[in-house]
Structures are given as structure tokens and as C-alpha cells.
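Supplementary Note 3. Input sequence used for the single-chain structure prediction.
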Amino acid sequence: MARAASGLFGGRGQAVRAAGSLLGGGGQAARAVSELSGGGGRAMRAVSGLSGGGGQVVHAVSKLSGGGGGQAARAVSRLFGGGGQPMRVVSKLSGGRGQAARAASGLSGGASWSSAVGSFGSGGWSGGWSTVAHIRRAILPVGASRSVLAAGRLPGMAAGVFSGVGRSGASRSAIGVLRAGSVERVVGVGGVVVAGAVGGGVARGTYRLLNARPPGGRERWTRKNNRGREVTLLEGPAVALGIAAASLLTPGLPGTVRLAGCGAALGAGAVGLYDDLSERGAAKGFRGHLSALAHGEVTTGAVKILGIGATGLVAGAVLRRDPLDRVLAGLVVAGAANVVNLFDLRPGRATKAALIGAGGNVLRQALGGGGGSRSGLLTSAALGAAAALLPEDLGENAMLGDCGANALGAALGVAAAARATRPGLIALAAGLVALTAASEKVSFTKVIAATPPLRTLDEWGRLPQQGDS
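The predicted structure, written as C-alpha cells, is reproduced below.
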């Protein structure tokens, strides 16, 4: 028993003493571990499998599952990679200690998690944790080694998993574990690649279809850019539809982020398209449109401002529960939509700004740090849609317009608001409001032109420029 438990407590001599302290004595420790692992002589082999990892896990699970779990044991061993990892894997699958009872019931094919870990603490994982905390307060001196507490957690949780394997049929439970873990595995590098590919593929395909037969005729969609070259506005609707489709189709996105991302892209894109296709008045800028509205003149820009504001508030209400957080999230979504549009004054600039500003969220998601919101997937979908048509933009064949820029910014705003804490929301909203206010006084184009590194990045990939200011 001492050798078997040695891996849990770090030494042969300490194993019996630690287990004895935790459970009330050497004899009780042996009986308790025997109950957790199935009884009798299997206790030592089960604990050895938990502490040793690798091939020992196969043997332990095979014994615990009543002889019918040979294949499941190998599958579980490959999935967990060793005895120490089931705790972390189950934690991710269950979404938290309090939810483990429901999650584990599904993993074990319907077997009761509470009964599986009854000797550890009734009520599922939450009860088990409370039991260990109570034992620690009652018998452990202040400053005692955490290995005893960890040892109390690991066998209890592992016994629950293995008991489910033995009760419900080993192969069935192993398949349940594999299925439950598939979502977690898809949200890494593969997840962001899939999201970007879906967004880019839909955007590219939509652009080709629209460009082949522009609705209402080609002239309706043709505008002149800053150099007087004719470009099409069809890039905007293609990007907006690409983001919306990717929001719905990308696996792994929570329902709230999926709905808010799709709705924000379509809503902001729609009011932007209205502004793109309408005759422009004399009013310009955020302040100009609001000033005209105050004098009773409803400009297309004012409609866009109000529409994007409403879209942001709806998205914020979907994402967050607290009223203040909903308003802050709405400001982030609407502010991001407007700020990205402020950069759409030169070919490719808005997409480059979005890639630089939001690329970190994609990297974080790829490295496994996206958190429960998995917002990096939505960011990847939005950036993929815009990047797929960046060559058309840089080649001065097409432009995002208000439709594409607003949709891109709104989706990035949803992704940012989904993962941010309240202080983060406040900081994001304040920053976006500050940029919007600064744009009324300062020309971003002039700032970029006066800053060599920014100017070089801004001009990268474009056609040769002359007189660009």
C-alpha cells in the first residue's frame, strides 16, 4: 500500500502517515481506498494506476471495470495521457465543480455520479470538495502540505469516473468521454483555422456571385476611391454575410456569442449598406450628423448612427445579464463598428487595422486561453472574411464601404465584449469613445502619413501611390 500510494504523496514513508492523517488511521485508509477502487486487492493496483500513469492506468481501469473494459482502458489511457490528468480533463468537461454531477452523469452513460463517489462526499463533485475542506479544517494543522488535500481530491474524482466505466459498460463510457471532449479539442488551433476558413470561404464565394450579377446593376455599386479609381461596394455585403455565416456555422461558439455575432454583423452591415447606397448630404462625421438631426434633418449618417447604436445594445443584451454590463457591451459593439469604419479611407487600411488590433485574441484562442466565451473563434471568423477579400481591396477593385467596415467592427466588438470583465468593458468603451472623439479633431490619415512605421505598414501591398495624403 505504501509503495502504491507513494506517487500520490511523494515518498514511501510519508504515504501511510499522510493517508492515516487524512482518513483517521492506517486501517481506515486501506479500507477507504479499497472502497474507492472496487474493493479487496484491487486497491493497490488502482492507486498505483492513479499515481503512476501510462501503462498502469490501463491495468487499473481494466481491473476496475470488471474485466470488460480492456478497450475502454486503452482509450481512456490515450485520452488522459496518465493518471494525474483526469482531474484536469474532467474539470474542463464539466465546466466547474458545481456542474460535475450533471456532466459526469452524461459521461458515465447515466450512472449516478453522487453514488459513485458516495464515500468521498454525497452531492457529486461539489459535495466531495466540501467534505475534503471539512476534513482539512478539522484535522490538518495550519501550513500542512497541500499534497494531503490533493490526495483527497484525486482518488475521489477518479473513483467516480472509473465507477461509471464499470457500471455502464466500459466502451460506452469511453465513447462518451471522447465525445464530450471533442468540443474542447476543436477550440484550439484547429478551431481558429476552421472559423477563419468558413468566414473567408463564404465571403469570397458571395463576392464572386454578387460581382457576376450585381443586384440592381453594376453602376449602383460603383464608387470612386480617394485616387479617382472606380471600385465596387460589393466587398462590403460579402464580408458581412461571411461573418454572419461563420458565426452560425463555426463549431464551439457558445449560443450567446453565436447569436450576438451574427446579429451584430447583419444589423451593422445593413445600416451601413443603406448609407453606402444612398445619396450623401453635406453633413459629415459623427458630430455633423447629430447636429443635422438636432435641427430636424435626418441624414443617412444619422440613420446609420442610430441603427448601429441599437444593434450594439441588442448584442450587449444577448451577451451579458447585468444591466450596466449590457450597456457597456453595447457601447463596445457600436464603438468598434464606428472606429473600424473610420479607418476605411484608404485601400486595405481598415482590414489591416482590424488584423493588428484583434489578432491577439485569435492567438490567445489558438493557444488555449480563449476562456469560456471562446471569443477568439468569432474574431477569427470576422478577420478571415475580411482577409479573404483584402487582395481585391489592395488592388483597388473593391472596397469595404460602410457596410463591410461596420459589420467587421461590430463582430470584433462582440468578441471583445464577450470575454471582458466589467473593468475591461469600461476601458474598451472609453478607448473607443476617445478614438471617435479624436477623429472629429485629428485626421488619422495625416497621423499615419507623418509616422514612418505606420506609413510603411499602411502602404504595404497597395498599388503604387501618387499624391496619397
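The chain has two domains: 2-184, 189-459. Residues 328 and 425 are 6 Å apart (CA to CA).
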